[in-house]
Design brief:
Chain A is α/β, with parallel strands linked by helices and 479 residues long. Chain A has helices at residues 14-19, 21-25, 39-56, 61-67, 85-102, 119-122, 140-144, 150-161, 168-175, 200-207, 228-237, 243-251, 256-270, 290-302, 334-346, 371-385, 397-406, and strands at residues 76-80, 105-109, 179-184, 211-216, 275-281, 324-331, 354-358, 389-392, 411-413, 427-429, 444-445, 454-455, 465-467, 474-476. In chain A, strands 7-6-5-8-9-10 form a six-stranded mixed sheet, with helices on both faces. Chain A has a four-stranded parallel sheet with strand order 2-1-4-3. In chain A, strands 11-12 form a two-stranded antiparallel ribbon. The radius of gyration of chain A is 23 Å and the shape is globular.
């Protein structure tokens, strides 16, 4: 399949095409429904790439960071990984969107000890001509010990403006730091003060700080829509609202060895299917629970994703040729895949379909940091994203990456892991194609903004944001 | 695919075709190389079927057996199962061949308690119009307690002829029993006296006994060639020497539920392959041993069964379209299949083939007697037999069934399970397509025959029989 070059995310680059095949071949694998990159986003990418090249250049980033300095016209955002690969991707994509919105240069830093399994090692360099990797000896952790977290700084500004004599802008001018550490995670901060990040005044404060460091496990990008300025910019960049899809297809290209795994699996096991269904089974418990298999089958058959089986020994008259349905099941525990496979091997089905159930890996337990394990995780997400339809586990950022990249509104299991799941059809179509921002702010107060300013809850003024159906959090509504 | 009806093993029978699809569809699945049933064998089958129908008829077999009586012109062979499904099939096919040679009626008796998993329950009734199943209350075990084993009887004849006054034929006429229990197994009998079964005089003695009961775990049929009379008959029945293939394709047809499993797996997972390789991994130890995976890969790559992998990240220029090679790996332990699959997912290969590695089951441990387990075993053997080429574990009757049905001379692992396997290319083409008779007689004396009569070792006079290459035992040489 060839694709007009103005529909590629990446500028034509023969050398890079060898180093990173996925950038230039990804479009051969997605379901045919065209989701072309918006021209405004492509233009923003080209501008960002120029900025990145200029602000990385030959600068000694370590020296600049330690000194709290920046070259003329440059500001930086250092991204720090947290939790599993799905969580990492949530925050990495969010960091990139934030960089686009705030004209910061995105730099990545692996966890010490996990360098090889780090995302920035597993993914291709996204930006032509200059790297996004900080050097391994970049003194990030050492410096962070002397660096304020966002709410410490916000409190300082609060204190200076408490008597009302000074505006927060004036007050902050004397205490604005050169580095600030932003954490926005699923872990509780008292009064959720980390989420003041989403207040307009706080964004103005942050915009003045040369070096920001972001640590998050969340898809905070959805929250950017709550800020009027960003909302306007996002609507220009992504008129189709497919923010994660476009940013992900641009940013998350796996390196050639992982791409090889992905395409070898696809070509060897999935190529000849007439219909490809992905089922992502996230079981947070490592023990096999037969109820989950029943739940999966209930969802698949009651929603006509897969046919019911017949109870007789003899096969019903089959279509000739039968429709070939391939089910790609990912998950840590192999038994769920075995159960579904066995169901359709033991019995014929009422549609006379030829059904194959495959699993690209079965790792048993999460081993984030183990290179081969992490490669498989990335490969599995991409493979899922090539399916024609998806069934996902709720609350799993792993699944979010898959349907986010695919641009598919997935079925999501309802009452997953609860015994009363039989009260429902097992799963329900989600309302959103992208990830949910799980730990989204709710009625978060913004004390530095005009009185009454609250952010975080979906409302009529921000129709782009909706609660995720059956899941805690908000996401971008495709409209 | 339609096939001329004179090349079907079974007489056209619309009702039976519904009850037992495999009889009339098996030819659609084997590798194209035609191995048509020899006309002499087909004629013998039709004669046998008539005999079976006549001698089963409305007779009360239980009463006849207890009384040691038979209807005019009838003699019976009762087959008793022993060990795993492969072992059982070895002796069942042998019993059927013996029935053909000796004009006995073959009847089958399940182990008590294992009725549902019994072969005679998993296989279709082979003989049109009358059953081969003995009633569940047939008092086989009770009667066997009062029944001589073959060497007990042979000793009695020995004793009567010891002083030389009487011929063994005269001597036996007074003591010839109405029932005799024949055991011929891998378990040691002192001086291997069970194997006197293969002596010509003993065969004459046995021919006079109305009811024989056979318990064996072995492919004793290969030994029938040692008996001049049988040898001549076998060469007429099977001019192509494919005794197991023809008898097996006639006799071993799985019932519709198992046939459904087989064809669903084939159609869903194997249909689109350009080349289908079967690898049967029999590991007698339940613990995973990584050396076996290396052994399998050594065999496959050094014998050009599968390509070597490349060491670079980038794939070599692939053929367009690449050759689709599907590897069907059977075995109790899933890890060997995972290892081989992972090898070809992680790396590209030098031939640019698209390689998929599949396993139809992973049962962990042998559970003979468990119905679903036994169904899978039978299904796996048949699936293997549909491959274009086979790699087998040595000494495994499970593998013998697969390549015997296929008529494929398999690669067999050399030094399987031994650390010094690396001295060899991992495996070697066998010299035989059918099973080995593992516990074959060696220089067995025949005291009732003319002095010097010994049977069992391959020799110039019996060119049909050869030692199995790299395996203990003898088999039928295709010539
Ligand atoms: N290969 C693979 N790994 C998985 C799968 N499910 C979970 N994991 C592992 O467990 C981690 C889960 O963390 P994360 O990706 O953040 O997703 P989440 O915990 O579901 O939100 C993954 O990154 C993998 O390391 C799967 O289906 N396939
Ligand atoms: N389904 C399945 N079962 C197997 C396999 N290998 C061994 N088994 C089980 O273990 C038994 C082995 O006994 P048998 O068939 O007599 O073969 P042998 O022991 O290899 O000579 C089989 O009948 C099955 O119950 C396999 O590849 N697939």
């Amino acid at each position: 399949k060839s694709i007009p070059s103005d529909e590629q995310y990446h500028p034509k680059n023969t050398l890079d095409a060898e180093v990173c095949t996925s950038k230039y071949m990804q479009h051969c694998y997605w379901n045919a429904t065209r989701k072309p990159p918006p021209p405004q986003f492509l233009q923003a990418l080209r501008e960002y790439e120029a900025l990145h090249q200029r602000c990385v250049g030959n600068h000694n980033l370590t020296e600049l960071f330690v000194a709290g300095k920046v070259p003329e016209g440059c500001k930086y955002l250092v991204w720090k990984e947290q939790d599993g690969k799905g969580n990492q991707i949530m925050s990495l994509v969010s960091a990139f969107i934030y960089s686009l919105l705030t004209k910061r240069t995105l730099l990545t830093m692996p966890s010490l000890g996990h360098v090889d399994g780090s995302l920035h090692h597993l993914l291709c360099e996204p930006f032509p001509g200059s790297s996004w990797k900080l050097p391994p000896d970049f003194p990030l952790d050492a410096m962070l010990q002397q660096t304020d977290v966002q709410w410490d700084y916000f409190h300082k500004v609060d204190n200076l403006t408490k008597n009302g004599s000074e505006s927060y802008l004036d007050a902050s001018s004397t205490i604005s730091p050169s580095r600030l550490y932003i954490t926005l995670s699923n872990y509780n901060v008292p009064d959720h003060e980390d989420r003041r990040f989403f207040c307009p005044a706080e964004q103005t404060l942050l915009s003045r700080i040369p070096w920001l460091v972001l640590k998050s496990n969340n898809y905070i990008a959805a929250g950017f829509y709550f800020l009027p300025e960003y909302r306007q910019a996002l609507n220009q960049l992504f008129p189709d609202r497919a923010m994660f899809l476009h940013a992900g297809r641009y940013l998350l290209n796996p390196r050639n060895d992982i791409w090889g795994r992905i395409t070898r699996f696809y070509d060897g096991y999935l190529l000849n299917a007439d219909k490809k269904i992905g089922i992502q089974v996230r079981s947070w418990k490592p023990e096999y629970n037969p109820i989950l298999s029943e739940h999966i089958l209930r969802c698949a058959t009651l929603n006509n994703i897969l046919p019911n089986v017949t109870q007789e020994d003899t096969a019903p008259p089959t279509k000739t040729p039968p429709e070939r349905v391939t089910v790609l099941m990912t998950g840590l525990v192999a038994q769920y895949h075995h159960d579904v496979r066995e169901k359709y091997l033991r019995n014929a089905n009422v549609r006379g379909d030829s059904i194959s159930v495959l699993s690209p890996s079965s790792e048993g337990v999460q081993q984030t940091g183990d290179v081969e394990h992490d490669k498989k995780a990335l490969a599995d997400m991409w493979l899922l994203s090539f399916m024609d339809d998806l069934v996902s586990s709720p609350k799993s950022t792993f699944g979010y990456v898959a349907h986010g990249l695919a641009g598919i509104t997935p079925y999501v299991f309802v009452r997953w892991g609860f015994e009363d799941y039989t009260q429902y059809n097992g799963c329900e179509r989600s309302n959103l194609a992208g990830p949910c921002y799980i730990d989204t702010p709710h009625g978060q107060e913004c004390p530095l903004d005009p009185p009454g300013t609250r952010i975080g809850d979906p409302n009529a003024a921000v129709p782009e944001i909706q609660h995720c159906r059956n899941q805690w959090g908000v996401g971008v509504f495709p409209g």
